Amino acid sequence: MKIALINENSQAAKNGAIEAALRKATGPMGHEVCNYGMLGAQDDVQLTYVQAGILAAILLNSGAADYVVTGCGTGEGAMLACNSFPGVLCGHVEDAVDAYTFAQVNDGNCVAMPFAKGCGWGMELNWEYVFEKLFGFGSGKGYPQDRVVPEQNNKKILDRVRACSMKELLPVLQEMEALAPEQGVTGLDHLVSRAVAGRAFRAQFQKNCPAGPIRDYVEGLWPRG
Length: 225
Prior knowledge:
There is one protein chain. With about 220 residues, the protein is α/β, with parallel strands linked by helices. The protein contains 10 helices and 5 strands. A 5-stranded parallel sheet has the order 2-1-3-5-4, sandwiched between helices. β1, α1 and β2 form a beta-alpha-beta unit. The chain is globular, with a radius of gyration of 17 Å.
């Protein structure tokens, strides 16, 4: 499995520590970790949690990643942003129990974690435990044992409902990129092209994304030369 790590600007300084915990937990499982940034607080592109959601959607819908780990200060904003897009089923995960139950009951492909709230002494241990439970026991097996069948059925219903309510991603990206500036709101213009402009994202995306319309669209947003 290819696991993508994305950090927005408020918690970008923790990127290296999060990546280390993710690699330590998932390396023995045979998973590949790809760090899409932000790599630090001074990165060339400053991502908001909304743009982290955009990147998660691009990676999952294009096949560049199988799973996305992201977050923000509380994890709530990143979760809402990720769940705004087709092809992304994101859970809010704070601890190992959250991680295990989300994997087994909800069988999603993305988690949003709080990287400020509750992150003090021992935070790297909590991250390791989360990643172990999230990626080390398979997914979609249902939980608890007496609820396996109904929980698996509920997930299938949710998938059908989301298929009815969500658009294809590419028209969504095109519409967002064309958003007009709005009084009192900064950062609406060129929302997608600014999100994909980071060097770390570009390097990993070119390496991991298969050919297809989403790759073509993203590469078309990058400056030539």
